[in-house]
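=== RUN LOG ===
request id: a7f3
mode: sequence -> structure
chains: 1
length: 297
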Amino acid sequence: MSKSYIMQRLLLISLLLPFFTIAQCIKGDCQQGIGVKKGIFTDNSEYIYTGNFIYGKFNGEGRVEAENYIAEGVFKDGNLVKGYIQMNTIYYSGSFKNNKLHGNNCKKVITSDNSIIISEGKFINGGFISGYEKFKDKDGFVDSCYYSNGEIIDCIQNDKNIYRQSDLDGPKVSEVELTPVENQLFVKILFTDIALNIKWDTGAYGIVFSKNDFEKIFKNGVEFYDLNLTKVSSGVLGIDIETKVYIISRLQIGEIVVRNVVCNVADINESLLGMDFFEKFTNVTWDKKKNSLKIYK
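=== RESULT ===
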């Protein structure tokens, strides 16, 4: 089951908040002023409300506290209409209607395995309709999805390359020579002032640097951003290898400069270039007879 699917299912869970029932005033003016009331929810758990009252109901600024539950903000006729709610490790902030998020709001969930799910955008009766949703697990994997009218429009994972026009400089089309060596093909890629001939392996996941090559280009001044993410990728002959994931600031293939490239570093003998790297482009074609690639910006 994919993390995106898990994220969707978690965020379809309705906002279930306890309802107030019988309460008694224990301090101050609980009819038409500021006071404190102690009562029980419909699930028989106890709560204390501190704040403003009008006609004996929670109206105005106030705060409800109970075991594993806090609600604070503006109340109207006994219900929170604006503010925030914390239930265990679930946080809701914004506007509420009938004890459910309603309007432009935010919801944050911390799961039992310390994954974090944040939804920001439009809610209707507790359901997430439109906006931005991000899932981050304890290992550093991030899945960001955009919603419109209750449907997913697009999702982006931080361990995958995606096309962004702003990441590419150069001609619309560039032809890249593939150099054959002992029935293997190599692609020349430039990193600032150093060039590497990287083996083209269609089974590899994006760019996978050997530790030796990574150290070379790092010492050459190439900038990297560490995603603090470790994953398992496919390498030579489809053998799984453990990799560390980085974003490289800049490289050049053919005549095209590419920025913000997701890459992997692994304990392998030689660096590999897989098909996923070419997700940075609008298209790529391979001419087998000419031993060349055409990449399209």
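=== NOTES ===
Residues 165-296 form a domain with the Cathepsin D, subunit A; domain 1 fold (CATH 2.40.70.10).
Residues 1-16 have pLDDT under 50 and may be disordered.
=== END ===
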